[in-house]
Amino acid sequence: MKITKAQSLANRAHIVKTASELFRERGYDGVGVAELMAAAGFTQGGFYKHFGSKADLMAEAAATSLSQSVASTESLDLRQFISFYVSRDHRDGRSEGCTLAALCGDAARQSGEFKATFAEGIERTLAKLQQKYQSDEQAPRDVARAKMIDMLAHAIGAVMLSRACPDDAPLADEILEVCRAEMTASLPQ
Q1: How many domains is the chain partitioned into structurally?
Q2: pLDDT for the residue 143
Q3: What's the rounded Cα separation, in Å, for the pair 9 and 11?
Q4: Contact at 8 Å (CB) between 121 and 99?
Q5: Per-residue pLDDT in tens (0 to 9) along the chain, 189 residues
Q6: Which domain holds residue 136?
Q7: In this structure, is residue 91 part of a structural domain?
Q8: How much is the pLDDT for 1?
Q9: Residue 26: inside a domain, yes or no?
Q10: Is there a domain that residue 29 lies in?
Q11: Are 66 and 118 within 8 A, CB to CB?
């Protein structure tokens, strides 16, 4: 049975969403095409009707999830962002969490074109954070950008370090608590 163009687009979007969640949970090498398609409810053969390669899907899933990460924190001020991002819930919610914290290490091993997708996501994230910072503090643009680069790197690093510890390790929580406190203290009162 032939499907409509609208259904084909909906199927593709569902595959991208499923891939994004699985990639954030297990990394790019931790998910095969057959498993991914089964998780999305489709056959492996249908994959190539939508994507030229797994790398194409990885790039689209990354772009989509990076945009969603930025959108999900849109309404938060910087203190709320820190509290949300550098938390046990975010740390444990790999498949729904930030793509940067989940996949920066994997992205570093990909092609330059793929890295450009991540760089665009990082730039969008920094721009949103910088807007929040500049509305709270009348800092010059270059100062605000430097502060937000430091804060984003600190937040991502905290989540990554915490995830590298066993789930029940006191160190996992200590890393988050210390980094969250230091980041919050570094913001203007």
Answers
A1: 1
A2: 86
A3: 5
A4: yes
A5: 678 889 989 999 999 999 999 999 999 999 999 999 999 999 898 899 899 999 999 999 999 999 998 888 889 999 999 999 999 999 999 999 999 999 999 999 999 999 999 999 999 999 999 888 876 567 778 888 999 999 999 999 999 999 999 999 999 999 999 999 999 999 887
A6: 53-185
A7: yes
A8: 64
A9: no
A10: no
A11: yes
Considering only CA atoms, which of 35, 104, 7, 99 is closest in space to residue 61?
99
Task: With CA atoms as reference, report the closest residue to 15 among 164, 93, 43, 129.
Answer: 43
Residue 164 forms part of a structural domain:
yes
> CB–CB of 27/9 below 8 Å?
no
Is 183 in contact with 164 (CB distance < 8 Å)?
A: no
**What integer pLDDT is reported at residue 132 of this predicted model?**
83
Pair of tokens at residue 151: 């804060």
The domain that holds 177 is classified in CATH as 1.10.357.10
Which residue is it, tokens 């600190």?
A: 154
Q: How far apart are CA 56 and CA 82, in angstroms?
A: 32
